[in-house]
Design a protein that fits this description.
This protein is α/β, with parallel strands linked by helices. It is 27% helix and 27% strand. It has two domains: 4-91 and 126-165 and 303-352, Medium-chain alcohol dehydrogenases, catalytic domain (Quinone Oxidoreductase, Chain A, domain 1); 174-299, Rossmann fold (3-Layer(aba) Sandwich), CATH 3.40.50. Helix 4 (161-172) crosses helix 5 (189-200) and helix 5 (189-200) runs parallel beside helix 6 (213-222). The radius of gyration is 20 Å and the shape is globular. Bound molecules: zinc ion (2 copies). One zinc ion binds next to helix 4.
Length: 355
């Protein structure tokens, strides 16, 4: 009989349980068995546990998708990894041979998305959301999902790799230049990652709008030049004051439904990035403003090729990730982690495996 391990299992809206599951073993030549260090809490996890539920999740799977660990064993074909290597994980590895992969768009891989009509009406088939994920001791996954990082990389920062890859790749589309101005709506972990990336990219003004005081303070720590409480202040007015009445070059939506505000805050030919992910929201777009200002709008979600770069960013300390990571909570107290994330009084939370 196979050995068993404890795992956090998603049991349906608002519920999880600790259950015993078989320890997976290497079966295929390209398999990599990982001893999990831990798994960060994602905004998607909060949306899955929210009432009403804002993101679907498959019942009875091992939960958690932002995980990292070290190699425990490898299949015969895996030559670039060996036991003991620290690794970050892409929880939805692209196939490498579909039309989108071949076109250099692995984020849109046919195997990453499943939808009734087209891939994009569906869902990314993320491990830890639609298949077994990382909140357990051991995971086996194909080599294409596994990226080695240096021996000095800190596990709690490695847990930020997957969301940071999505942010970094999305930001490249905006072509940010030194001296540009930017506005970030929302200073949750994703908004904070964008703030840090914009700072590292040389923006001279980074205006961050966020109602929670804890998060506004964090934004200032990681690079915001000005923070605004949108519940008490007029964000649009402050954007104009900070940008010589022009509007910002770049506006990043890291909440969910604020794209109309982004269109209002950018300068003519300004660029908007929709990154906040709320499947229920249908904002009304001000078409007149959009076309007169010639606004350029981008979407962003996953970042594949950027995974390797993220490993290097973590190793070399390019971004103040220690400041974005605010809590480490053991997996045996997972409820606390979800409650804290749902309270928004935190940055990124890393759940360490302690069973
Ligand atoms: Zn995530
Ligand atoms: Zn593909």
């Amino acid at each position: 009989m196979a050995d068993t391990q404890k795992a956090i299992i998603y049991k349906g809206p608002g519920e999880f349980a600790y259950e015993d599951r078989p320890v997976p073993e290497v079966e295929h030549g390209d398999d990599v068995k990982i001893k999990v260090y831990g798994c960060a809490v994602c905004g998607t996890d909060v949306n899955i546990f929210a009432t009403p539920q804002k993101h679907p999740c498959k019942k009875d799977i091992i939960f958690g998708h932002e995980f990292c660990g070290e190699v425990a064993a490898v299949g015969a074909q895996v030559t670039n990894l060996e036991p003991g290597d620290k690794v970050i994980i892409d929880p939805h590895g692209p196939c490498g041979h579909c039309d989108n992969c071949l076109a250099g768009l692995p984020e849109a891989c046919d195997e990453v998305f499943l939808g009734p009509d087209s891939g994009f009406d569906g869902q990314a088939l993320t491990m830890g959301v639609f298949a077994d994920g990382g909140l357990t001791n051991y995971v086996v996954l194909p080599q294409k999902c596994v990226y080695k990082v240096g021996a000095d990389a800190k596990p709690e920062l490695m847990g930020m790799a997957e969301p940071l890859a999505g942010c970094g790749y999305a930001l490249e589309k905006l072509n940010v230049h030194v001296g540009d101005t930017a506005c970030v709506l929302g200073a949750g972990p994703i908004g904070l990652m964008f703030t840090a990336l914009l700072k590292a990219s040389g923006c001279r003004k980074i205006i961050v709008s966020e109602p929670i005081e804890y998060r506004r303070k964090k934004a200032l720590e990681v690079g915001a030049t000005c923070v605004v409480n949108p519940e008490q202040e007029d964000v649009g007015k402050i954007v104009l004051e900070e940008t010589e009445n022009l509007g910002v070059d770049h506006c990043i939506e890291a909440v969910g439904g604020l794209i109309p505000d982004c269109i209002a805050y950018v300068r003519p030919r300004g660029k908007v990035l929709q990154y906040g992910h709320d499947e229920l929201i249908r904002p009304e777009i001000p078409v007149g403003t959009l076309l007169k200002k010639e606004v350029e709008i981008h979407g962003g979600f996953l970042g594949k090729y950027y995974m390797r770069k993220v490993g290097q960013i973590i190793e070399d300390g390019v971004l103040p990730l220690e400041k974005i990571l605010t809590h480490v909570i053991p997996a045996s107290r997972y409820k606390e982690a979800i409650e804290l994330a749902s309270s928004y009084q935190c940055g990124k939370i890393f759940v360490s495996i302690d069973f």
